[in-house]
Write a structure and sequence with these properties.
Blueprint: E1 5-8, H1 19-27, E2 30-33, E3 37-41, H2 44-48, E4 59-62, H3 65-77, E5 87-90, H4 93-98, E6 109-112, H5 118-127, E7 133-138, H6 146-150, E8 155-165, E9 178-181, H7 184-193, E10 203-207, H8 209-217, E11 224-226, H9 234-244
Parallel strand pairs: 1-2, 1-9, 4-5, 4-7, 5-6, 7-8, 9-10, 10-11
Antiparallel strand pairs: 3-8
Helix pairs in contact: 1-9, 7-8
C-alpha cells in the first residue's frame, strides 16, 4: 500500500515541533489537517428545553476543558451569577487549572483526581455526598455514567455542547491514501459526507477503543490503531505503519 497523502482529522498543530511534521519530513508524505467534526455550543433557548435550573446545584463536574468553556458561556447567556461557594470537581489537574480562565482559582473550592478517569473521581464525589452535582457533558459523551450511579452520586446530566459533522463541499474529492480518526463521530461524518466511500486502497488509522469499534461497525477496514503497548500515540502508530509499508 503506497502512502503519499494523509488526512488527519484534527486541527493543524500550533507548534512547528509537532511529531506529525517530523513524520512528514522523514517519510516524504503530505499531511492535510482537516477536522471531520466540530464542537457547537447549545444556546440558552436550547438549554432551557432540558428544564435544568443551574442555581439548584451546589457543585459542577467537569471532564473536559470544552465543558468549562460552554458552562461559563451559557451561565453568561442565562444571566446566572455564579456564586463564590460553588464547588468544582474535575477529572484531572490540567482541567482544574483551566478554571483560572474564568475564576480566581485560589479563592474557590476545587477538587480533582490525578489520571483523568471518572472512576477515580467518584470516591472524591462520594466524600461530598451532600452536594447536588451538575455534570456538564456533550451530546456524545464517552464517560460511563453507571459509575456515578453505583457510587450513589446525586447528579444531573446537562448537555451544553454537541458534536456536529464538518461537511465537505459538494464534489470535493476524498483523494487521500490514509485517513486518521480520533472519535466515532469522525467515522459518522465520513459516512455522511461520502456515503459511497470505497476504502479499497485507503488506509484507516484510529485513536481509542471506541473509534476503532466505530470503524468495524461501519463495515470498514482498520489498518492501524493507538494506543497499544508498542504505539502509545497516534503519531507512533502512523510512523510504524509507514515504516511497515515502505
Amino acid at each position: 500500500m503506497k502512502i503519499n497523502k494523509i488526512l488527519v482529522s484534527q486541527p493543524k498543530p500550533t507548534s512547528e515541533k509537532s511529531p506529525y511534521y517530523d513524520i512528514a519530513n522523514k517519510y516524504g508524505v503530505e499531511l492535510i489537517f482537516r477536522p471531520f467534526i466540530r464542537i457547537e455550543g447549545l444556546n440558552a433557548r436550547e438549554f432551557r428545553q432540558q428544564k435544568i435550573n443551574i442555581p439548584d446545584f451546589t457543585a459542577i463536574i467537569f471532564t473536559a476543558r470544552t465543558a468549562i468553556d460552554h458552562f461559563f458561556r451559557l451561565a453568561e447567556e442565562l444571566r446566572y451569577a455564579i456564586p463564590d461557594d460553588l464547588k468544582y470537581f474535575c477529572t484531572s489537574e490540567s482541567i482544574a487549572l483551566y478554571l483560572q480562565k474564568y475564576i480566581v482559582y485560589r479563592k474557590r473550592k476545587i477538587f480533582y483526581c490525578e489520571n483523568g478517569k471518572i472512576a477515580d473521581l467518584v470516591p472524591i464525589l462520594a466524600k461530598h455526598n451532600k452536594e447536588k452535582y451538575l455534570y456538564v457533558i456533550s451530546d456524545v459523551h464517552k464517560e460511563d455514567l453507571s459509575l456515578l450511579d453505583k457510587g450513589k452520586i446525586n447528579y444531573t446530566k446537562a448537555v451544553m455542547y454537541r458534536t456536529v459533522s464538518n461537511d465537505f463541499e459538494p464534489g470535493e474529492p476524498l483523494d487521500y491514501d490514509a485517513l486518521l480518526f480520533f472519535s466515532p463521530a469522525g467515522i459518522n461524518s465520513l459516512k455522511k459526507n461520502f456515503p459511497d466511500f470505497d476504502q479499497t486502497n485507503v488506509a484507516i488509522g484510529t485513536f481509542g477503543v471506541t473509534t476503532a469499534q466505530a470503524v468495524h461497525d461501519a463495515g470498514l477496514r482498520l489498518d492501524f490503531q493507538a494506543p497499544t503497548p508498542k504505539t502509545p500515540s497516534m503519531t507512533a502508530a502512523l510512523e510504524q505503519f509507514l515504516k511497515d509499508n515502505k
